[in-house]
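lol so apparently i was supposed to do this last week
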Amino acid sequence: MSGPRSEARRRGPALDVAVVGGGMVGAAAALALARAGFAVALLEAREPAPWRAGEEVDLRVVGLAPSSVALLDSLDVWTSIRQARAGAYRHMHVWDAQNGAAIDFDAAAEGRDLLGYIVENNLVQWTLWRALEAAGVQRLCPAEVAGFAAREDRIQLDLADGGALAARLLVAADGAGSPLRAMAGIATRGRDYAQRAVVAHVATERPHGETAWQRFLPGGPLALLPLADGRSSIVWSLPEAEAARVLALDDRAFRDELGVASDFRLGRILGTTPRAAFPLRLQLAERYQAERLVLLGDAAHAVHPLAGQGVNLGLRDVAELRDVLVEARAAGRDIAAAHVLRRYARRRHSADTLDARGFDLLARVYAWQSPPLVAARGLGVRLVDGLAPLKRRLIAHAAGEGS
Ligand SMILES: Cc1cc2nc3c(=O)[nH]c(=O)nc-3n(C[C@H](O)[C@H](O)[C@H](O)COP(=O)(O)OP(=O)(O)OC[C@H]3O[C@@H](n4cnc5c(N)ncnc54)[C@H](O)[C@@H]3O)c2cc1C
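anyway here it is w/ flavin-adenine dinucleotide bound
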C-alpha cells in the first residue's frame, strides 16, 4: 500500500493520549502526560467552575497526602494551590465513641513537618486546568464520548456532538459512574454502604490545632478536618435516613447535634455553612485495562472517605501511568500495547484493592455493636497506639511512600 492513507497509518494518530474526564485525576493525568512530552487531549462534559479567592470555601475538600503534593509539585501547580488556600494538618486524633479507645498520629514525632493538606476540590481542578493550555493540552469542553473502537494502531472516539477523534490510548478518568468503563464492558465489585456523607464547614469554639479529628460513632465516622481559615470541614457519614434528617435540620439544631456528635472536642459549634451530602460506596473495577484503554481515579476505585484517600489513590494511578508510558516510549514500544498497559493495571489494581479492602475492613470493624466486640476493638486500638513502629508504617503508607 502506498499514498497518503498508508503514510498516515504508519505515523499513527496525531494524538498519543485522549483523557476523558477533567476532574482532579483526569486533569492531573492530562498535565502529567503532556509535561512528559506526549500529545494529549482532555475531554470533559462540564466546564469547571473558576476558583476565586474571595468566594466561600468549596464544600468539597480532600486531604492531600505527601505523595499527591509531590506529584502536583512536579507539575508546577502545588505552589499556587498552597498559596491560594490550603490547610496543613500535623496531627490526627481518632477516637471511638463506644469504648473511648483513641489513636494519635503526630508528624513531629515521626520527624515530619506535616501529615498532609486539606484543599478544596475545585481549587485543585481549576489550577490544573489553567496549566493545561500552556502545556499544549487540547481541551474539548463540553464534550462527551458516545462510543469508541480499538484499531490496530489507534482508538477511534465518536463524540456525542457528531465529532470524532483518534489517539493511541484512551484514559478513562470519568468518575465513579464512568460511562467509558461501562462501554468497555468492565464490571465492578463492592458494596453500597447505605450511608451518605454530610459535609459542611463549621466554626468552632476552640481552634482545630492543625489536627484532623475523627470520631467513630455507631452510625459512622465523623471527621473534622482543619481548614486554612481556622474553621473545620466536616465529613459526617450517616445511615441514609439519618443523613436526610440531619440535612433537614435548621442551623441551630444542626450545630447542637454536631456538638454532641463531636463530643464537644472543639467546644461548641458556633456557625455553619449550608450542607450537602454524598452517597458512599465501595466500588472496584474488576480490571483497569481494556484494548487501548485504561481506567484511572474513581472510574477505577471508589472508597469510603474514612481514610481520606480516594483522590490520593487516583493521583498515584497518574504517577504510575506516566512512568509506565515514558518507559515504553523510551524502549520504542507502542504506548498502548497490551503488555505495557498490563504493567500499569496490575500494579495499581493490586495496590488500590489492598487499600480499598483495608478501608472497608475498618468500616466493618467500627460498625461492630456487640459489647464483647466493642471491647475487643478498644483493646486492639490501644495496642496499635502503643506500637510506635507500626504507627510509623501506617503514616508512611498513608503518605504514599512505597505504594
Ligand atoms: C464526602 C467525600 C469526602 C472525600 N474526602 C476525601 C479526602 O479527604 N481525601 C481524598 O483523597 N479523597 C476524598 N474523597 C474522594 C475524592 O473526592 C474522589 O476520589 C475524587 O474526587 C475523584 O476524582 P476523579 O477525578 O477520579 O473523579 P471525578 O471528580 O468524579 O471527576 C470525573 C469527571 O469526569 C467528567 N465526566 C463524567 N462522565 C463524562 C463523560 N461521559 N464525558 C466527559 N466527561 C465526563 C465529570 O464531569 C467529572 O468532571 C472524598 C469523597 C467524598 C464523597
